[in-house]
Amino acid sequence: MNRSLIISDCDEVLLHMVAPFGGWLAECHGIDFVMKDNDFGKAMRYADDGRQVEGPEIWRLLNLFFDTEMYRQHPVTGAVEGINALARHADVVILTNLGDDRREARTRQLADHGIHARVFTNQGPKGPALRAILDEYRPSRAVFIDDLPQHHASVGETAPEVQRLHLCAEPLIAPHIVCAHEAGHAHARIDAWPQALPWIMAHINGVTA
């Protein structure tokens, strides 16, 4: 029998992204980042006059951050220990929504923090990419971990047999994100690794009720 498989997102699951991104915006670009609801596109305003940063500039800044500032990202509490504990019992891969040209940089970034895992990059809904990973690994059981509800919905459509955990470890945005569990797209919502780890371990070992 093949091993179980963990398919984990990176940003806000393993590494903080929004907090260092917001700090960099304030420090280098005079932009305040404040999430008041679940609309990321309305969270950025110029500090000097309150103007909202528009879509094309938001994407430019996001790309610039991932090109030059990934060193600012730091691990979520308990994530390194948790994912490495899981790796002793299951295969672990990372499915991250970055351009394919950033795969090596993300792999090095995670390794620098003590997470040594194969990285798959993706753009758009994650369901088809996850299906391809399952077809390659053919695991006995699989658990998907992500902070965004739309990816749980996508995975639920393409791979309903996969256990889905909604985990958003960034307190700046967690209260504003639609709960994939409440929406029926995830099997649980747990936003902290110390509590998430036992849930994941039970599912990969097949000891759930």
Predict the CATH topology of the largest domain.
Rossmann fold
Strand order of the largest sheet: 5-4-1-6-7-8
Number of strand elements: 8
Level-1 CATH class name of the largest domain: Alpha Beta
Write the layout of secondary structure elements.
Blueprint: E1 4-8, H1 18-29, E2 31-33, E3 44-46, H2 55-68, H3 79-87, E4 90-96, H4 103-112, E5 118-121, H5 127-137, E6 142-146, H6 149-158, E7 163-166, E8 188-189, H7 193-204
Parallel strand pairs: 1-4, 1-6, 4-5, 6-7, 7-8
Antiparallel strand pairs: 2-3
Helix pairs in contact: 3-7, 5-6
Structure description:
There is one protein chain. The chain has 209 residues and is an alpha/beta fold. The chain folds into 2 domains: 4-16 and 75-204, HAD superfamily/HAD-like (Rossmann fold, 3-Layer(aba) Sandwich); 18-72, no CATH class. 37% of the residues lie in helices and 16% in strands. It is built from 7 helices and 8 strands. The protein has a 6-stranded parallel beta sheet, with helices on both faces. Helix 3 (79-87) runs parallel beside helix 7 and helix 5 (127-137) crosses helix 6 (149-158). The chain is globular and about 60 Å long. The model has no long low-confidence stretch (mean pLDDT 95).
